[in-house]
Design a protein that fits this description.
Length: about 100
């Protein structure tokens, strides 16, 4: 053995291991892509811009509905027992007055 043959062998061993590791990484990446494409096909989920616009719309809708809820929150909730009969409601009274004035 010469002094040059040992470092040369180590060099080729390191290069071989690096090439195998790089190939293994690429192979694992391809396997991951194939499996993920099989589970969730391309185009089945919204794109990032569509999702961002949808999030903005959802935030706007949530803001509007929370404002409406805050306005209506000061009023008592309408339940089946709290509804007045039509004859005593304000709308019914207004309708009776309007119809009597029209005659």
């Amino acid at each position: 053995m010469t002094a040059l043959s040992i470092p040369l062998f180590a060099f080729f061993t390191v290069i071989t291991v690096l090439l195998l590791a790089t190939g293994l990484r690429r192979l694992m990446g391809m396997i991951f892509l194939v499996i993920s494409e099989a589970l969730v096909p391309g185009g089945s989920l919204p794109g990032p811009l569509y999702a961002l616009r949808g999030t903005r719309r959802l935030a706007g809708r949530t803001r509007r509905y929370s404002q409406i809820s805050a306005l209506l929150g000061s009023q008592p909730a309408m339940t089946a027992t709290s509804v007045r009969p039509p004859s005593t409601s304000r709308t019914a009274q207004w309708t009776k007055e309007a119809s009597s004035e029209a005659r």
